[in-house]
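REVIEWER CHECKLIST
Item 1: Sequence provided? yes
Item 2: Single chain? yes
Item 3: Sequence as submitted:
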Amino acid sequence: MFGLGMQELLVIMVIVLLLFGGSRLPGIAAGLGGAVNSFKKALKGNDDDATTQLNPAPEKVPTPQESTTHKPS
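Item 4: Structure as written out by the authors:
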């Protein structure tokens, strides 16, 4: 894990705790977890929006019968 040992991770956690305080850490962790979850979903390819943007539905072109406003008698 990036060449960090247990002691280095412990020091980083203590510094983060001192900077943000104990009350804000759950919110930060939840936000980070949500970001990682979104990133994983994007990597999996659950992006139906992207496929519809790449291949949009063709527009309906009116036929000559549909484009007339009056009915022939």
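Item 5: Key structural point noted by reviewer: DSSP finds four helices and no strands in the chain.
Item 6: Recommendation: ____
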